[in-house]
């Protein structure tokens, strides 16, 4: 009887120890599972926060790009406004201005009078008339340099050289009619003045825009 009781006690003790061991293991596993879930939730929150920050930075980059693009377009518009096209009316006005100069100069030179009837006084009048037309000729030539293309200007330069030679030759031949007389030089200057006047009108009418 005593032996049976001892064996029963031992059996109960073994069962109790087994039960307690099983309960302890279950509690540790539950604790580990809770800790694992908490860690995962924390990591997920961190990842969500990083993702939101990255999206915010991307949005700022797009805004900067738009602003830069708008500035470039504005600069382009300003540049276009700074270069207005040349007006045909301005060119026509310039030609009309020089036609008026020609007519005014003709009236001016026609008013020139000699102080007396001497050849010297007459030569001075014609020499002054030639100088006036020659200055206007140079003025017109300078305007044409700005208006004409390089090719046309080169052609005009060659033509002008030939015209000067022809003018001087014509004046010389005309003066020979009075060779050795007091009228020789006077006739020379008269022809120079007349041909220079005609050349001024020709350049304005045929070349100026």
From TrEMBL:
Signal peptide: none annotated. Residues 115-203 form the Lysozyme inhibitor LprI-like N-terminal domain. Pfam families: LprI (PF07007). Residues 35-63 have a biased composition (Low complexity). Residues 31-95 are annotated as: Disordered. This is Lysozyme inhibitor LprI-like N-terminal domain-containing protein. It comes from Litchfieldia salsa.
